[in-house]
Amino acid sequence: MLQISPAGLVFLAGDIDARARPVGRAMEPVRPLTGLPGSAMTRALVRLAATWRMELDIEAAALHSLAAGARRLADAVTGADADLAGILARAGIRGAR
Amino acid sequence: MSRGGAAASWDVAGLRAAAGQWAAAGSVISGEGRRTGELADLDPEVIGGAAGEAFADRLRSSAGRLGADGMLLTTIADVLGDAASAMAPHTVHAGGDDPDLRRTAQDRLYALDAEYASRLLTFAPTGHAMATAPADWVDVGPDIAGLAPGDRLGSGTVLSAGDGTTLVANGDPATAEQIVLFVPGTGSTVLEPETQTQRAETLREELRARGTDAAVVTFFHDAPPWLLPAGGSTYYPPAAARLQAAAAQVSGLNPAAHLTVMGYSHGGIITGYAAAAAHGPGLRADSLMLLGSTALGPGVGHVRDLRLLDSSGKPHPPAGHGDRVLAATAKDDPIRLAPGLTGRGRGPHDPRMGARQVPLPGWEDNEQPRSVLTAHSSYFWDPVSLGNIAGAIAEVRRR
Q: Can you tell me the ipTM of this complex?
């Protein structure tokens, strides 16, 4: 039977959240170019910044979701999440406390 | 572009500052990608052996995307730096006193501006954002920074965002007795959530008026931006895979609730393909509502060809699908022609499909014939249609 360490999972979740925060904020300092008003490059940069901001938001959300998954696994092996604990037990996995 | 008054505005220092900002963002993303990859290689006991394999794979996948994103951001910074270097010599004369030299320098600067703008636009992200961005882009996209569960979006509330899918709830799926997972059609995008979430809210109110405590969850996904790509096979297979995951996720919030997956227009083929027994494990759904839907995709000639799963993962008996699969197609909706035009199987309005037909009014019931677009969207605004649809959804739960 495989073992999962709940404490390890909680640490892992924290690490993943720590990765997600800078990803979501990486584009915040990037502002549209103001030195070339009306130029094609200014318009291009505004478009790029908006789309990249969205891309990185989505990546950050995916990482937060993974962190939440790790915490749920931790809850499962400590018995706090009975539904998932049952699934793990049927898969031959138990928590190492 | 107007050139009036721009002569003094060529600001090479501003370009270099912008390059620095993009380079910094690239450095952050590359670094976080590297560190995320390292997490995937932790002791298997920590992340749970077999249980952690998929988890580690997802971490590696995120790390890979972040690594690629970081490289693209750094490349954008390099292009900005190159533009600054190329422009700098010309700015000396662009603001000078000699009219000939000034004109020549200005022309060169505008040519460089156009050239580098064109190069910059080739470095759009290749991942999720482009999958949900409008085809023609907008000059300033809506600011969805920090989109997270609980945020308001349109008239709904974000349940989850990521992996190319955003789920937005009208009502509380955790407590509702019935959940409708709404799969919108062509042109729908999370960047313009108002229309779809308002449709969701209207349906929820109609259900409540019929005594059903429902939540309607809109499945924003990578929908085809317009009609022509909607007729191809690029969009619906990947969306179907994401719909399977979304249905399971929503059901997990409230396994006791009856789950109706409602596909509208192109959302119908996504729903059909996700549920087709020939293509995979099936779709978590207690019932389907197909509104103005195209064909249900290859391999589905009858509702018995669908595999609908209950909350425990067991398939509902196909013999009962005739009562479980509802179809609402207005008599004057041109979508009725789509199956023949696209060759993607039968439409749910086809009697041979065996779906339960919801009666709807057509143009002969109105004083004036309706335009094709009006007919195709009538499910959400025509009170008789909406009432019949909501009534059928409420009734299928009680059967």
A: 0.87
